[in-house]
């Protein structure tokens, strides 16, 4: 009876061992890993290529924000320069009125005082507009230097206007102011062209 049980136990053990899966040979595992490696690298290359293409599309498909901001600023600056030119033309009108008053043998002092007050108001308005334009302008804009010239001229014109006394002696200063206003308008016209040229350059690069 004991021999029978022993034989049966050995038979069951042998059957169980045969049923277990055999471990894969080392060579087979290495071969499988070598076969899978190119596939992984291929997927990685596809991912990298897709990312690069997308970045290129973003760079060329949409204008950089900095350039967009500069275009908006250029348009706003051109409008501001137009306003400054309008103020300069009003300065010409105001100084012509003063010239007419002081050219008379008998100067109407009240008329002169009122005209001078209006003249100074117009000059200060032009100065405020120019200051706003300087805040709008941006680095490497050719109009920046031109606006500095306008600022220097306005400071000189303001002082000349303040020094007017209300007699024929003012005619020399008035003649100088007339020349300066013409030069100021020419300078602002040049500034506007510089702004337009710079804007066109930005748009070509975008």
Automatic annotation (TrEMBL):
Q: Which UniProt keywords apply?
A: Signal
- Keyword Signal among UniProt keywords: yes
The Low complexity compositionally biased stretches are 49-63
Coiled-coil residues = none
* Record flagged with keyword Signal: yes
Q: Superkingdom, according to UniProt?
A: Eukaryota
Task: Enumerate composition-biased segments (Basic and acidic residues).
Answer: 34-48, 185-197
- Region entry Disordered: which residue ranges? 32-69, 185-206
Please give the name of this protein.
Answer: Small secreted protein
What species is given as this protein's source?
Colletotrichum liriopes
What does the organism's lineage look like at the top? Eukaryota, Fungi, Dikarya, Ascomycota, Pezizomycotina
């Amino acid at each position: 009876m004991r021999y029978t049980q022993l034989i049966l136990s050995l038979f069951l053990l042998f059957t169980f061992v045969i049923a277990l899966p055999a471990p894969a040979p080392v060579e087979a595992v290495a071969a499988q890993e070598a076969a899978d490696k190119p596939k992984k690298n291929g997927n990685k290359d596809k991912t990298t290529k897709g990312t690069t293409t997308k970045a290129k599309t973003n760079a060329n498909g949409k204008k950089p924000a900095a350039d967009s901001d500069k275009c908006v600023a250029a348009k706003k600056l051109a409008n501001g320069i137009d306003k400054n030119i309008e103020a300069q033309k009003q300065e010409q009108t105001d100084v012509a009125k003063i010239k007419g008053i002081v050219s008379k043998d008998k100067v109407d002092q009240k008329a002169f005082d009122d005209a001078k007050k209006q003249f100074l108001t117009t000059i200060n308005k032009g100065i405020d507009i120019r200051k706003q334009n300087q805040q709008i302008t941006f680095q490497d804009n050719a109009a920046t230097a031109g606006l500095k010239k306008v600022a220097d001229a306005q400071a000189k014109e303001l002082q000349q206007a303040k020094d007017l006394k209300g007699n024929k002696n003012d005619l020399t200063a008035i003649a100088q102011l007339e020349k300066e206003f013409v030069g100021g308008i020419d300078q602002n016209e040049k500034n506007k062209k510089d702004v337009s040229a710079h804007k066109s350059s930005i748009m070509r690069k975008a």
